[in-house]
Fold these 2 entries.
Entry 1:
Amino acid sequence: MPPNAAAALQNASLVGQNKTAVVVGGTRGIGGAVARLLAKLGCSRIIILGRGEKQGKDAVEILKNRAPKGGKVEAEFVQGDLSDNKGMRSAAIALQAAAGDAVIDYLILCQNGSPAGLNIKYNAEGHDTAFAIQGISRFSIAYLLTTRGGLASNAMVMSICNQGQSLDDLSVDDLSLKNRLEARPSGPALFMQQSKRDCTVIDSCFEELNTRYPQYRYYSLFPGLVKTEEFDPSFAPGYLKWVMWLGIRLIATTPDQYANFPVYILASPEAQRTLGSGKYFDRRLNPTPLGKWASDSKNRQALWEKMAEIIGEK
Ligand SMILES: NC(=O)c1ccc[n+]([C@@H]2O[C@H](COP(=O)([O-])OP(=O)(O)OC[C@H]3O[C@@H](n4cnc5c(N)ncnc54)[C@H](OP(=O)(O)O)[C@@H]3O)[C@@H](O)[C@H]2O)c1
């Protein structure tokens, strides 16, 4: 049975534990809510990253004011754009400089690069920009902070995005799905493939990170539908915008409601006991398996090599 995360967090506190959290995409949406809940529990340092300066600075003030009685929250905004390699690398360096070496206890990745359907824009390296933000930057930031000594011992890294879907015929040589465009897919069909691609890549990278760096824990969580401040279903093509429009009205949670689930894993003393060694979860913290493509270790290794090449680490 999934845990009652919100109830369990009533008894949790991070006051006096000297924890440092980095929330990428933490200026609003799900990441903003995760940062606020960590502040409310007394996480002593919270660093958030996004592009918008005003939004970032406003969010920092809110975090400082959320500190519980007897606790103090130091909050900082780091401006960064994860659309291309240069931006990802600069962001990783700036985050480590802001946090200090080997002190990040929680690295939470919430940056949003929703699938673009047919409206693909390509970044400086020729990759689908939405995929660069959603998939490549999750690998890049996690990898760079892991291998450059950014993480504290026993650190937890968490992606909040899609989980468990599989693009079964994914080719590591066509991660931006350019070949599929030649078959003139419909907007909704391509959108679904991009969504599965993002998920397949994130799942595979996180499974490899767990295998290669067992001293840390790399989690991947699917949030379900969350009605964030700027959620606008019209980003989805064709009939999918109506499916989302309805879903948002019928089943969506708010960012603050949803934040209980990731923060339960990070901060509740009972999480390890109730969740065991599982790393991949659905919107209510039911464990979820890897998708078919990501379950194949040969696929994952080929992808790892490709991703290292893409981010200039090979
Ligand atoms: N909300 C949902 O229902 C839902 C459902 C399934 C999956 N997800 C996934 O969950 C994650 C969080 O979604 P959300 O709804 O919380 O998104 P959101 O409300 O749009 O917030 C996204 C955050 O990412 C930052 N961001 C966007 N582009 C960026 C860039 N190029 N570089 C750096 N930061 C960037 C934003 O700040 P700036 O704009 O200032 O840069 C903001 O802080 C996303 O990966 C999303 O696809 C969400």
Note: The first strand starts at residue 20 and ends at 24.
Entry 2:
Amino acid sequence: MQNKTFAVRPAGPEDDPAIAALVVEGFLDKFRPIFRGRIDQSTDIMEKWVRLEHSIGGVSSLVVETSDGVVASVGVRLGDSEDETLSRALWSILRKHLGLIPAVRAAALLSYPRYAPQRAEAYVERLVVSSDYRHEGMARTLLHEAESRGREEEKGTVALHVTNNNHAALKLYESEGYGEVSRQRSLLTSYALGIKSWLYLRKDL
Ligand SMILES: CC(C)(COP(=O)(O)OP(=O)(O)OC[C@H]1O[C@@H](n2cnc3c(N)ncnc32)[C@H](O)[C@@H]1OP(=O)(O)O)[C@@H](O)C(=O)NCCC(=O)NCCS
């Protein structure tokens, strides 16, 4: 399909619930085995996580809004992140929503890929387009916009992780000139989520 033109705008705090719902929709195949019987809690958990990323994680989000509301979103980390505080906060959110043992399991699975974004790079995460709006060029548009933000902040590179089995996203990133730098394998996520490896892709800005 021909790419259309979309208005991309920076997300504000009022968009956090919509971004959380989109992320859960887009990554449901991953979240189902992580949250299992508590999948109904996943949107609340994600909303709290997105809010934390925006407040102390150095992440800004961009969204595409149509008459249906926010239908696509991406996060881009450009600032410094308080990683220790983030990890503690995530643990406390999981513990509260899931209970101790499921929280331990979810925290272990959500810790992949293990990576601390570098200051010199713009780090793209949770790129997602609602299923009714796919194949219209929204992901490519959001990616371009995230890259522009990286250039504005004088980052030298833009980087992201993608799972080995995410063929749609891999095709997009390859077509945009991203190259594989390294690969992280995990027996745990292979067994629990069917994800054998996480590819770290990067591109010069
Ligand atoms: C991956 C995803 C973001 C793509 O969104 P999209 O808006 O449909 O993508 P676009 O329309 O911008 O397509 C851009 C390119 O991606 C590739 N692509 C997108 N969907 C594809 C599919 N189902 N199969 C193969 N390639 C695909 C194509 O190369 C496409 O370019 P083309 O249209 O010129 O062929 C969307 O499928 C999604 O939200 N998936 C779930 C969440 C996810 O996996 N996010 C990526 C995390 S790393």
Note: The longest strand covers residues 69-77.
